[in-house]
Amino acid sequence: MPRYFFILLLSLVAVQGQGQQLPAPLNLRCDLLRNTSAVSQKGASTNTELEVASKQAKAYQFATITSKQPTFSWELDQRVTQQAAYRIVVASSPQLLDAAKPDLWDSGQQKATSSRATYAGKPLTPGTVYYWKVQVWDGKNTSSAYSKIASFYYGEPDPSELFAHYPLMADVQQPIAVKKTESGAYFLDFGKDALAQIQLHLTSDVSDSIWIEVGEAIAKPYVIDTKPGRNIRYRKLSLFVEKGTHDYAIEWPTDAKRNSRNPVLMPDYIGEVYPFRYVAITNLKGQLDQKSVQRKMVYYSFDEQASSFTSSDTVLNQVWDLCKYSIKATSFTGYYVDGDRERIPYEADALINQLSHYAVDAEYSMARRSMTYLLYHPTWPTEWSLQNVLIAWNDYLYTGDDGLLKTYYPELQKKILMPLAGETGLISTRTNKQTDDFLMSIHITKLFDGRRGLHDIVDWPQNGDYVSPEKENKGEIDGFVYNTYNAVVNAYYYRNLVLMQKIAQVLNKREDAAFYERSARRVYDSFRTVFRDPGTRLIKDGDSTNHSSLHANMFALAFGLVPAEDMEPVKQFVKSRKMACSVYGSQFLLDALYDSGMGDYALELMTATTQRSWYNMIRVGSTISMEAWDIVYKPNLDLNHAWGAAPANIIVRKLMGVEPLTPGFEKIQIKPQVGTLTFAQLKTPTVKGAVSVNIKKASQENSMDVVIPGGAVADVYVPADSTKNRLFVDGQAASVKAQGGYFMVPNVKPGQHTFVLK
Fold this sequence. Notes:
Layout: H1 3-18, E1 26-30, E2 40-41, E3 44-45, H2 50-53, E4 71-75, E5 83-91, H3 94-98, E6 105-106, E7 110-111, E8 116-118, E9 128-138, E10 150-154, E11 169-173, E12 177-180, E13 186-204, E14 208-215, E15 218-220, E16 223-224, E17 234-241, E18 244-249, H4 256-259, E19 274-282, E20 293-299, E21 308-311, H5 314-329, H6 347-360, H7 365-376, H8 382-385, H9 387-399, H10 403-415, H11 436-441, H12 487-506, H13 510-531, H14 550-558, H15 567-576, H16 583-595, H17 599-606, H18 614-619, H19 647-655, E22 658-660, E23 667-670, E24 679-684, E25 691-697, E26 702-708, E27 713-719, E28 727-729, E29 732-734, E30 742-748, E31 751-757
Parallel strand pairs: 23-27
Antiparallel strand pairs: 1-4, 2-3, 4-8, 5-6, 5-7, 5-9, 9-10, 11-20, 12-13, 13-18, 13-19, 13-20, 14-17, 14-19, 15-16, 21-24, 22-23, 24-25, 25-26, 26-31, 27-30, 28-29, 28-31
Helix pairs in contact: 5-6, 6-7, 6-9, 6-19, 7-9, 9-10, 9-12, 12-13, 12-14, 14-15, 14-16, 16-17, 16-19
């Protein structure tokens, strides 16, 4: 190479190095929505520009931002170790941004480590589309390129919808199998159950009526079950078809019984849906193939690629797939509802849905929308009221945004039920404290099944006639004895007080925080005095019984009410009861097991193939988590109930150990408890970006690869192994000693890292 070419090349490299920028921010969100520029039409995505669609609002659907000061947030590339400053520019057109002439807001360079900022520009005008972009700087004052431009539509505030949300989506699907049966009928299988509509493109040799059957279950191969159970769906409809080739759409009849109970209604732009997997068509005088019958599945915005999990246990992998799909399939109303039967939001359903939704997709608006609804449309169980604070805290912990806490703090204070407290500080629904004023304050204005006020639930169903080798008590409450003061209710109450102290601190309400801290200490002491059995050191069900159930002990364990000296007997008792709780209760059982170091047993429960297991749901043919373990335990169960999808969040939060240590995942904990698994690989989304964990065990070494998103740090816990005692971090020997079963490496920076134990 000639010398002058070599000098020129060195000069170019030097110039490039001087002009090097950080990677641009990505995945911009406005008020936590990631696709505010997306436009759809009756559920189908379109390429229509938001500016165009906003002028034809009756023809198109899109998200509407209504807060006067929207929150902007973004993700950072893994190569951005730490953000030190940002600059946001907002304009009324993308051309103004391209010309560096933002006419609404230019934040200037603002020092901040958080990748989130509140709009502080000129007042926004309803009915207008706005455009924004952001750039960041690191600690060395190196700037990034600007992000791509994002847009959002600003609309009139809706008092009933204070937080932005997406319109519903719909996917058109073809059957995975079509078979012509011996009777001349056509049988179609769509592979999975879904809340959906049917679109037909049929060719008939004659004009005549045909029969269309849809169902969630089959009686035998290629035959839909016509009597599957009270709430497992089957429907038969007639349709007159014209000679030749024509398109038809099935209109589902109105469910008058359900509509009388004030359910969440489907929006007009989507229309009614019905749950089915199978379709049978009889009396069709013509040919039918996979394109003749299509299913239009309705769901809330969902990113299929946001999460993944696989492991050395094939049962666990199937359970993950079941639970992940359950979150998408049951989102068909845009709220967390109890399934198709009632289509009513319930607080307990919402809590489990929320955690599992966060685990499989970084989508936060549906949980906010559901909690907002539930605050003013509560249900009857005492414990359900006490779920609201848990949901609100999860929202803040996972998003880092305190908007929901600020907005609903006064309502949350009422939902913890402090007026029901007695002299000991414990609460009870049975001491005549549920006055009209109290019930009005928590928005209970009607009877539930003829009953007034709150009633303790513990688990559901409370009653039932079926027992099995896996449990000896009827119902799902493990023989719980209801007393005036209930241990399960007060475990929830204690957890509420602990979280309300944290919430008050976040909102800088110091006097409130001190008050809730004192109240929590008092309840903790009273709980031990009233509910602890000094002989067995277990938790009793109530204040005037000696009976101890799984529920009294697992909720106490899950919510931090079991002191160290009682931990062993409580843990052994919980283990002895097996899965003596419902699919709802399993969320708290598994949380309690993992948090108390019983991960191996928790894994046994998640991979069990007994009747009371997630695998049983798969075995009986359901593709969405069921309302109960089996129809024998709840004869009126349904097959589309996401409160049975707890493993979706348990696998992420506990088995793979990915949880936020600080709000908004600014600091992440990665503390896996994989038990007997020889390998496990997870990708889970966060508001900061995706976190990945890949664990492999071998005779010579164990490895754990992690990916940490930009702008975050992580405390990484590498599981110890008695046969291996040398830890290497990114190829370098680490002077870390094992403690408590882990090698802990603090403050691991963004990017990909490898931890090897030899």
